[in-house]
Design a protein that fits this description.
alpha+beta; single chain
């Protein structure tokens, strides 16, 4: 049974003892546990490194093995420098000014299927509201929708209702008392308008 670093465990039933691993010109012995690995071919654990007195230099990316039965060997990892494929807009502008060629590519997924009304959660609940064909956004209108106002009209600015803390506490107490005693009072106001026009009793 092997415990994985990311959690979990795997049951293995095959061990290859005395296998040979070749590092440079040096051949060393190792016991391998057969597992189904996708990213790595062989993993040499800490026990094997300690057995062969391996020294790991992370800064230089080197592994030095000083085994008593074998000469010293230094394994240096290869660094693959991947070129940067994405540049900034300023870098692209500078390259264009220097005379570099630029190409604009438009990639379209031809196999992409447009969603139907049944695929949209909210739209499929109201099929009678939405049409079967939704081509896209509405076309550009020549005349924009506006609300015309008279010259000189500004937005109405009303200061928020303010109340002193003492008056607010009294209002809260009065509201609680009214709710508790279930006392309600209805007030009626007489209102009139001086600008109403009645023409032959027809409004």
């Amino acid at each position: 049974m092997v415990y994985l670093p990311v959690g979990g465990r795997v049951i293995v039933n095959s061990v290859r003892k005395g296998s040979l691993v070749r590092i440079g010109d040096v051949t060393l012995s190792v016991d391998l546990i057969v597992m189904n690995l996708k990213e790595f071919d062989v993993i040499l654990g800490m026990n094997w490194l300690a057995q062969h007195r391996a020294v790991v230099d992370c800064y230089k990316k080197e592994v030095m093995i000083e085994s008593s039965a074998q000469p010293k060997v230094v394994f240096v990892g290869k660094r693959h420098v991947v070129p940067v494929c994405v540049i900034s807009a300023m870098e692209a502008r500078r390259l264009l000014l220097e005379g570099c060629e630029a190409y604009l590519a438009n990639v379209i997924d031809a196999e992409k299927v447009n969603p139907t009304l049944e695929d949209i959660p909210v739209v499929r609940d109201f099929p009678e509201v939405f049409s079967d064909d939704l081509p896209g956004l509405p076309p550009h209108r020549e005349v924009d929708f506006t609300i015309e106002t008279l010259p000189g009209i500004a937005l109405i600015s009303i200061a928020p209702y303010r109340m002193a803390p003492v008056e607010l506490q009294e209002l809260i107490k009065a509201n609680r008392r009214i709710v508790r005693e279930r006392v309600y009072q209805t007030e009626y106001f007489t209102m009139g308008s001086t600008s109403a026009i009645c023409e032959e009793e027809r409004w």
